[in-house]
Amino acid sequence: MYRLSDQQVDYVLADIQRRGVKMEDLQNNLLDHVCCMLENSMQAGDEFEKKYEQTIQTFFRKELSEIEDETIHLLTYKNYYAMKKALMITGTFSVCSFIMGTFFKTMHWPGANVLLVSGIASLSFLFLPLFFLVKTKESGSIREKIVFAAGTILGLLYCMAVLSLIMHWKIGKPGTLWIVTCAFAFFVFVPLYFFSGIRKPEKKLNTIVVSILVIVAAGLHFTLVNLRPTNPEIKMYGYLQNEQLLEKMSSSLVQPSKPYSAHRELVTAIHQRCNDLKGMILASATGVTTMPEDIEKKNLLIEENNLGNVFNGNPSANNLFADLKRMVIKYNAENNAGKIPVEHSILEIQPDRLSSYSNLFFLTELTQLQMFLVHSENMQIAAK
Amino acid sequence: MFSSELIKGTLKTIVLKMLAENKKMYGYEITQRVRELTGDKIQLTEGALYPTLHSLEAEGILTTETEFIGKRVRKYYSLSKEGKIKSKEKVREFSDFMNTMIFLLDLKPKTA
């Protein structure tokens, strides 16, 4: 058997390096392999360099470095199938969690928000990035990769916009995220998608149809979501004016030296419950329990929100509400004239549904209830 | 000689089986052994063998040790604990696949 000299080995190694193989491990493997082949096939009198050239040619189609490319490909993409599996799992999880969340939300069952948030979060932070990685590995051209990247960003933005809407998260001004999402869809994603797809004859029709659908969907959504909501302060002032009216009515109440009304204590207790509840709602919205007169100076704004913060996991608020209902019913039973309306009022709300109502609506209703009470007392005192 | 497409799908199985039968082998040895056993019908190419060996090593299926042969380094591959299980799995899977192909392509030898 022929034995290669050290110089020959060096020659081969240098050549392997020159041909673009950079991984040392692979260099050594190839070196040993070529040397073994040469040592087994060389005959006395064979010219080493010529024989080497012939042998190394059998290693590749175009160039030796394709072996390294293939190695890197396998090393990098060995997770490819695991990723595809993860893609299916996260996708299924997101869809299930999202559907259940929507259902729970419709039924006002607890846990709806957790399901929705986890569904949308796993969709946007696990599924979409994985989808992007898998897709970009499948597609060769940079153009397609850019389109996929834009699509992924659009999906992320859309999810965040929906999430911030249902969770009442404040990301910039209300609606900013929607405008960004729609602008991105119109001015970045659709042009990229359209002009990359329209070039390929076989994808032309598909591209046009999908582009139209995306524009229509984004446009419809843009219209559907109230981007310029009516001035939210209007509702707040509606409540504050009711409050002023109540105050005026209360001060005009004929102040009797003796309690005319047989159930003065009950009346006071009802007022007390109403004020306590209002205090809790105001505290959760603004941090203060009563609205000062100079709210404009202090820049206080009651933002419309649901009552989840007030009633969820807060027995004292729920007890107050139950007390109030009981007392009003009692008051109505003792008064034939001047009953406080219970039907079609907040008092008819089931305790487990309370958290889905608007805080401003509740404040106004409580104030109106107090107004009815003042009016009823006023009538009774006047009648005596 | 079989087409490279056919070999590509079975390369891992071949390598794992070779290593299961011989404690440790280096790349050239594997190609020669396969050649001998198959009567030159299966010739593993370097372009397919080494990437596979490297990826199996990265997955922890193969362990390696090196030996100096003069100026060059020879890398010996052997099955790790996990690799031994994987080797059996792969062979079983392929035998299952072959039976299916025999059935699918209607190649069953006629039994008297």
Could you describe the 3D structure shown?
Helices cover 71% and strands 0% of the residues of chain A. Chain A has 15 helices and no strands. Chain A is elongated and about 135 Å long. Chain A starts with 5 loop residues before the first helix and ends with a helix. The model of chain A has no long low-confidence stretch (mean pLDDT 85). Chain B is α+β, with helices and mostly antiparallel strands and 112 residues long. Chain B has helices at 4-21, 27-38, 46-58, 81-104, and strands at 25-26, 62-69, 72-79. Chain B has a 3-stranded antiparallel β-sheet with strand order 1-3-2. In chain B, strand 2 and strand 3 form a beta hairpin. Chain B starts with a helix and ends in an 8-residue tail after the last helix. The mean pLDDT of chain B is 89. At the A-B interface, helix 1, helix 2 and helix 4 of A face helix 2, helix 3 and strand 3 of B.
Strand order of the largest sheet of chain B: 1-3-2
| pLDDT < 50 runs, ≥5 residues of chain A | none
Oligomerization state of this entry? heterodimer
- Morphology call of chain B: globular
- The radius of gyration computed from the alpha-carbon positions of chain A, rounded to a whole number of angstroms, is 37 Å
Could you tell me the strand content of chain B as a percent range?
15-25%
Largest sheet of chain B: 3 strands, antiparallel
Compute the number of helices of chain A: 15
Summarize the largest interface: chains and residue counts.
Answer: A-B, 28 and 24 residues
Class by helix and strand content of chain A? mainly alpha
The Rg value of chain B, from CA coordinates, equals 16 Å
Q: What is the count of β-strands of chain A?
A: 0
Determine the fraction of residues in helical runs of chain A and give it as a percent range. Answer: over 70%
Low-confidence stretches of chain B: none
Coarse shape of chain A: elongated
What distance separates the N and C termini of chain A? 130 Å
Total number of beta strands of chain B: 3
* Main pleated-sheet profile of chain A: none
The percentage helix of chain B is: 55-70%
Average pLDDT of chain B, rounded to a whole number, is 89
